[in-house]
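Regression check, farnesyl diphosphate case 227:
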Amino acid sequence: MSSESQRAKHVAIIMDGNGRWAKRKLLPRAMGHQRGVEAVRELVRNCGDLGLECLTLYAFSSENWKRDEQEVDDLMNLMRKFIKSDLQEFIDNKVRLKIIGDWQGLAPDIVEMLEDALAKTSAGDHTIAVALNYGSQGEIARAAAKAATMGEVTTESIGLHLDTADLPPLDLLIRTSGEVRLSNFLLWQSAYAEMLFVDTLWPDFTVEHLQEALDNFAGRERRFGGR
Ligand code: FPP
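Current build output:
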């Protein structure tokens, strides 16, 4: 079924449903996020074998600061723990880490850890892009402002200044948990991406679910506005 042109190279995921997963199991929300990290880890381990050049994950939006302080702290601590525990595995598996969003606005110790992780994984041959303090409208505004300082503002010049400029075009955007919206994620990049909304809550999302999504993508007809 899948021809070369229909193989997804770049998949992005809105990882939604951690809270509901925890609630259904009568567990604290933090446990949902913790299990969410485990789902991330499994995909990071397998995305090379799935033939992906890039997997982009929405981990913390610029609007997530509105959540209560404890939850924001929990998410930041999970981030710290994840970088510490998994960095070596990234290096061993030749995974290049990339961060998109206004990540320099995170706590200084996290910024430092990320800078170290980016440097140590820069030789990787496939990419995990993590969106941190990310909002697509802000990203587009920043890119347009940069394009304006360089000359003409065109779709090409904006594209060249997006955080994702060095990534392959987005093929498939997946959102878990049954919600059907983009929540300020990769709005520009989604112009011709295929969309897939699945009911699975993020902590239950496995490599098999991702493979199913890739099979689904492989069977779609893409026209990019042509016929
Ligand atoms: C949405 O679920 C999920 C988030 C806001 C955070 C996503 C973060 C992770 C999966 C873990 C951190 C990732 C890394 C890379 C360390 P929700 O809490 O909105 O769920 P709900 O809608 O069911 O309440």
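Comparison notes: The first helix runs from residue 18 to 24. Helices lie at 18-24, 29-46, 69-92, 108-120, 136-150, 155-160, 207-218. No diff flagged against the previous build.
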